[in-house]
Amino acid sequence: MSKQFDVVVIGGGPGGYIAAIRAAQLGFQVACIDEWQNAKGGPAPGGTCTNVGCIPSKALLQSSEHFEHAGHHFADHGIGLSNLSIDVAKMLGRKDTVVKQNNDGILYLFKKNKVSFFHGRGAFAKAADGGYEIAVTGPTTDTLVGKHVIVATGSNARALPGAAFDEDKVLSNDGALRIGAVPKTLGVIGSGVIGLEMGSVWRRLGAEVTVLEAMPGFLAAVDEGVAKEALKAFTKQGLKFEFGVKISDVKVGKKGVAVSYANAKGEAVKLEVEKLIVSIGRVPNTTGLNAEAVGLKLDERGAIVVDADCRTNLPNVWAVGDVVRGPMLAHKAEEEGVAVAERIAGQHGHVNFNTIPWVIYTSPEIAWVGRTEQQLKADGVAYKAGQFPFMANGRARALGDTTGFVKFLADAKTDEILGVHIVGPFASELIAEAVVAMEFKASAEDIARICHAHPSLSEATKEAALAVDKRTLNF
């Protein structure tokens, strides 16, 4: 006999588990289905983000950054070390512990909020009286009926044609997080977020890393000035980049991978590496959802078609996160999950796509919100720019990390903040002030007039706002 729920959520990643919790807070009877398993076969909710994305990558970035500091920067502080080594197995074990803590935390939150959790794959079976019948298969086998269904099935890594992931030599983000020993040579196809972060991890630990990018330039979505500064920093660190490449062949052998490509000049080149990370984007995960059973509309990419409020073409069926349009970001999925739960309750859920922050957790970190200079120019928007370097910031000097700057872009007439772009230490934290400011439609002058603690990195934000009016105080 089927189990009845007000809301059934398919997928327990950031969008799904947050949607389930918020719906439960609003008084609904909620079920959440998720098929991720840990090494022992137990439930591991949290989706790509917790299991093979945001969380484990940040754990490895932290470990590798400690190693980098110990080997190259501790001496500046008078700290002497000898026989520095890295225990990769222990590093990966710590990463796995961090992941499990997050998995267990989500299960605890389900219990706390009285969300019924089902461990398995959820798929549409048919429309039913009172909603939709959802079949659960896997570790748990069950049949649920939900008056409302929220699909939050996320995305999968896009494979390079002719080079399927084997997670041994040709790696997705999953395999890149589980390399058992530091490779001497590592290739990365794609200079996006995943490629840069994973390339940085293994470069710090001693790998010779070469990044191949099809686009003619670096980080096209990022402000040009920020991208230029970041590329200079990454190149200085030892990452090697080739842009405008056309890959013709990828061959996997016993010793590694050979990548044949034409460089920007049209010359034939062969790159031989022990491991190859392919990070050329992600595709919506709708395989196995059985969307056709109920007539759920998908687009040509396999994404679920939704309107501005995340409604699908079916009544009372919603979709959020990577499986729909918009940026594939965990925090975007969370905001959509909350908004949908509130809309089901008759409230007015809200997601402002113009104030969703973006972060790349390299060193230096890159973070931004709003429009870039190139976008403003393309849109014909008159703007003013203000920039302040971290080399003129006292806290950055004390940290020993003065790479980068903060840039403000403001409307030339109204002074409203149109975009903030940061490359430098703790950019991921500093961007929050800019998001708040833009959400409240603040002007650059508003930030310039706010007292910031001294010494702090946030003073660079204030100074960049002052620079919009050409009146910085410390540069």
TrEMBL record:
Coiled coil: none annotated. Binds 1 FAD per subunit. It is an enzyme of class 1 (oxidoreductase). The active site is at residue 454. Residues 5-337 form the FAD/NAD(P)-binding domain. Residues 356-465 form the Pyridine nucleotide-disulphide oxidoreductase dimerisation domain. Its main location: cytoplasm. This is Dihydrolipoyl dehydrogenase.
